[in-house]
Structure formats: structure tokens, C-alpha cells
Design brief:
Elements: E1 2-7, H1 9-21, E2 25-31, H2 47-53, E3 58-60, H3 67-76, E4 80-84, H4 92-95, E5 102-106, E6 114-115, H5 118-124, E7 129-136, E8 146-153, H6 160-168, H7 171-183, E9 199-200, H8 216-225, E10 234-237, E11 240-253, E12 261-265, E13 268-271, E14 283-292, E15 297-299, H9 300-303, E16 311-312
Parallel strand pairs: 1-2, 1-4, 2-3, 4-5, 6-9
Antiparallel strand pairs: 5-7, 7-8, 10-11, 10-16, 11-14, 12-13, 13-14, 14-15
Helix pairs in contact: 1-7, 5-8
């Protein structure tokens, strides 16, 4: 099939590479301009550069809603559009233009985790598996019929970075498998159960701020979800920002006020956590490694020279 690819960052790059390696013909690529947004500077392999290396025409757009782009799409005469990590709304006159419609590739197990940063949100929420879904695009975000889907398990110590590497390797087989089904003439696919759909927004500064009213189990997953190269989860100590680079759930249970710097346990320093921490039934979060506001990284047992005091949400 003749394919136009809409994509951005490493997800789009992997999709384009899979298309270039396949029997399908990539006739045009549409991608976003480079961004300074913290999450868009991560996994930022260039779709534009890869397309140019293979002599594929490239169009740069923030939004695909102008007349010039529509004309270029019509001239490209695609059988199908394939999109992956396209960051803005694609209007109906674009996604319905190709003869076979538009296939969107999304890094979650739809209908759950539609929208943005699905791997991070899924890890924070304790999901047991994550994956990649290829679905036909319609007027609702990430809601079209599922053509292909694959899942991988979430391990007990997996970080968001680990899950990225697990799922990015699924892009090629899911995308090409879906395209082969469509090329074979299949038109009936699996409808999504919209009662199971969940939608998530882009990650921002407040989303990585530690709230000590959360249970320690949730905070431990937040720290893993904000693994390098993502911005680290942070709190404040004595009015200064303190990033938490490593943490585990405490073995023992600790009662008191959330945020209290309480006790050395193993290689960590336990912070009281949970809205009902006063009951003494909660585990704490044992911080093992931190980064100070001046960039120093060190074990928590070296940073916290004395117990007592509090970690706070704000300075």
C-alpha cells in the first residue's frame, strides 16, 4: 500500500523504520517541529531525519489542518495514513482521506490509557501489563476499532524506562501486522468497549511532585515511573527541592504524620506516608537515593544526617 506516515519522536521513528523495511511504500511523512518540552526532548529520534535519509518528502506541522497540507496529501494519493505519537488532533477530512482510512498506533492496551504518557500513568496505577495497540482512527480520541494489539508484563521493579524499551519493540510487529490485515482486504475489526475507556493528560511539573498523603506503595511506583531520563519525582526539605531517585516500600510499619523523616531501615531512610498514617498500619517509603537542588546525587543515608523534621509538598 501507499502510506503517508504521521509521527514524532522515537515512537514515530520506529514506526517509519518499520514501514521502510516493509513491502509498503512510504510516499510522504508529516512530523512536528523540534520541541523544548521536557517530555518531548526524551526519546527524540528524528522522524524528519530518517525520512530525508531515505528520500521521503517531509512536511513539518504543529497541526495538520491547513489547506496546503490537504493538497499535498491528495497529491500523495495514499492508500492509508499510519500515525504514531502525533501530538495534536487530526481532523476528519485528513484521517478519512486515504482509501483505507488512518491507522493509529498507541502505546497502551486500549481502551485503557488513551491520551498521553500511558506508560507512566499505567506504572503509577499498578497495572500488571502494558502494550501497543493499532486501531482505526475515528472522531474520538484513541477510540476506533482495534486491528492488532500486543501486551508485555510489568515486572515488580520495572521503571518507565524499562517499559518504554519493552513496548517500543512491539511497534514494528503490531504496525506491520495490522497493515497486512488491512491490505488483505479485511475491514471488520474489534470494537472497543467504551465503558472501559480511560483518558490521561500530558505530564507536568505538579504530576511529579510527591504527595506524602499517598500510600507508600503508590509513591514507590511514582519514583519508578519518573526514572531517568524522565524528570525525577521530587519533594522539599528545609525549603529546597529534593529529587527522589530511588525508593522502596519499608519492611516495617510506621505511624505518625505524613512526610515525617522517621527512621533508618536497611539502605534507606523511612518517610511516613499515607493519609491515615496516624493509625500506624501503613508502611513508609524508604528513600535510598536523592539528588539535591545543586545537582549532587548521594545515598539517602548520607543526605539525612539526623532523623526528624519533615519533607513537604512545597517549600
Amino acid at each position: 500500500m501507499r502510506v503517508v506516515m504521521f509521527g514524532y519522536q522515537t515512537w514515530g521513528h520506529r514506526t517509519l523504520q518499520a514501514l521502510l523495511d516493509s513491502d509498503h511504500e512510504v510516499v510522504m511523512v508529516v512530523t512536528h517541529p523540534r520541541s523544548e518540552h521536557a517530555y518531548e526532548k526524551i526519546w527524540s529520534d528524528s522522524v524528519a531525519d530518517l525520512a530525508a535519509e531515505h528520500g521521503v518528502p517531509v512536511v513539518i506541522r504543529n497541526r495538520p489542518d491547513d489547506e496546503e497540507l490537504l493538497t499535498l496529501l491528495k497529491e500523495a494519493d495514499p492508500d492509508i495514513i499510519v500515525a504514531n505519537n502525533w501530538r495534536t488532533w487530526i481532523p476528519p477530512r485528513v484521517y478519512s482521506l486515504p482509501r483505507r482510512g488512518t491507522l493509529n498506533v498507541h502505546d497502551s492496551l486500549l481502551p485503557k490509557y488513551a491520551g498521553f504518557s500511558p506508560l507512566i500513568w499505567a506504572l503509577i496505577n499498578g497495572e500488571k501489563e502494558v502494550g501497543v495497540t493499532a486501531h482505526m482512527m475515528n472522531e474520538e480520541l484513541d477510540a476506533g476499532d482495534i486491528v492488532a494489539q500486543r501486551a508485555v508484563p510489568v515486572g515488580p521493579s520495572d521503571t518507565a524506562t524499562d517499559l518504554f524499551h519493552k513496548t517500543v519493540d512491539l511497534i514494528a510487529p503490531v504496525t506491520i501486522g495490522a497493515l497486512d490485515l488491512i491490505a488483505s482486504g479485511q475491514t471488520e475489526f474489534t470494537r472497543q468497549d467504551r465503558s472501559e475507556a480511560t483518558f490521561f493528560h500530558k505530564r507536568a511539573e505538579d504530576d511529579i511532585r510527591i504527595d506524602w498523603n499517598w500510600p507508600a506503595e503508590d509513591l514507590e511506583r511514582l519514583v519508578r515511573a519518573q526514572s531517568a531520563p524522565y524528570p525525577a519525582a521530587f519533594t522539599h526539605h528545609r525549603g529546597k527541592r529534593l529529587e527522589v531517585l530511588g525508593a522502596v516500600v519499608s519492611q516495617n510499619r510506621y505511624g505518625g504524620t505524613p512526610g515525617r523523616i522517621f527512621y533508618r531501615e536497611g539502605e534507606g531512610v523511612v518517610i511516613v506516608a499515607g493519609a491515615d498514617a496516624r493509625t500506624g498500619r501503613n508502611h513508609g517509603l524508604a528513600i535510598t537515593r536523592v539528588r539535591t537542588d545543586d545537582g549532587r546525587e548521594l545515598p539517602a543515608t548520607e543526605y539525612f544526617t539526623a532523623m526528624g523534621g519533615y519533607l513537604t509538598n512545597h517549600p
